[in-house]
Amino acid sequence: MKKLLSAILLSAxxxxxxxxxxxxxxxxxxxxxxxxxxxxxxxxxxxxxxxxENGNLTGYDIELLKEIDNRLEQYExxxxxxDFSNLLLSxxxxxxxxxxHNMAKNAEREExxxxxxxxxxxxxxHVVVHEDNTEIKSIDDINGKTVAVAPTSNASIFVxxxxxxxxxxxxxxxxxxxxxxxxxxxTGRIDAIFSFxxxxxxxxxxxxxxxxxxxxxxxxTDIFFMFNKEDTELSNAVDEVLKELIEDGxxxxxxxxxxxxxxxxxx
Length: 267
What we know:
Layout: H1 2-32, E1 35-41, E2 44-45, E3 49-51, E4 57-58, H2 60-71, E5 75-81, H3 84-92, E6 98-104, H4 107-112, E7 114-115, E8 121-130, E9 146-149, H5 154-165, E10 171-174, H6 178-186, E11 193-195, H7 197-207, E12 211-227, H8 232-247, H9 250-259
Parallel strand pairs: 1-5, 1-6, 9-10
Antiparallel strand pairs: 2-3, 3-4, 6-12, 7-12, 8-11, 8-12
Domain Solute-binding protein family 3/N-terminal: 36-262
Signal peptide: 1-22
InterPro entries: Solute-binding_3/MltF_N
């Protein structure tokens, strides 16, 4: 009798265990239906991707991606913050699935990576100097000067080529932290940087950066997200939602809030 009771009890336990496993499997299968997408971004680009006063990651790129995530039920976005200089390598080694950092196309990047088709931003790049600087009035005045760019950025590629094409004796300093770059410009250790109107306004208002724009726009380039070459399904899904967000005015609203102007008109 004891053996029979033990057998019945064991059978009941196994049945309960089996039910529990079935429930766990169902939950896992449901969770497995949503693909996690790791988004590589930065934290030093004010109003694009940065930490606010409460320590929250926010900015135009971040809030736009949150809106995209809300409309893509098959994906779950997770942000991973890193130095700008590490973003491309992280995408190439597939540590991240999507790169968001105000990225523009160039031949080198297009050879290795996939850009989505629908741009989500387009801003003019300018030469920026200290407000007291009267020597530099355009990019043609950086000959013999020291300028700073973010390594591997579109601005750095443009400036490097411009200096080479014009045989300028320009020293190019590569700085990854925007606060450091602004400080060096303010203290006179460098003569010029390359930035956007909204960033200059923010730097002046928030940190008394004492910056001014000089000359005509150097670039007016469409901005995209970047993916691994084979991730066309993800890229297409992002494009589809981006077009919706442009049409319904969400991009206009976010652009005005974070960038100070409606750059969606350029898209």
